[in-house]
Target: Zinc finger A20 and AN1 domain-containing stress-associated protein 8
Amino acid sequence: MDHDETGCQAAPEGPILCVNNCGFFGSVATMNMCSKCYKDHFLKQEQAKLAATSIENIVNGSTSANDKEPALVGSSIDVQVKAIEPKAISAPESSASGSVEGVNGKPKQGPSRCTSCNKRVGLTGFNCRCGNLFCATHRYSDKHDCPFDYRMAGRDAIAKANPVIKAEKLDKI
Model:
């Protein structure tokens, strides 16, 4: 059978290089891009669509994300996407470079240090009940002049564990 009858196309003669000239091979399924370039291209498209819908919501006056329209008009959004795309790409980069963030998105903190001697403790630091972090030398309450009242904490724990039980008085006959 011919490829015209089956709808299949003949495979190209040799491997296709990525259209972004990154040096890797592309495929027809990924628009002649390598997997990394295709993924980057796809993410940029998603960010542009998200930016276009958010600007459309702002222009229309609705601020909630639940007011999205089920179908999008292709031609008007494509024009807006082209005009907004540079801003959408530059905004995440500027926010990421402006503040140092860790892997989890939380601000990165410096090395943990002992509150008494300022020694770096890392993972071996001890958290005291007073809320401070100490090294192995200063971990005990008598070594760092701990303001936490252990006596009252112990009394409260005993009082909670052993409530006072009183029997009702019996009526005298």
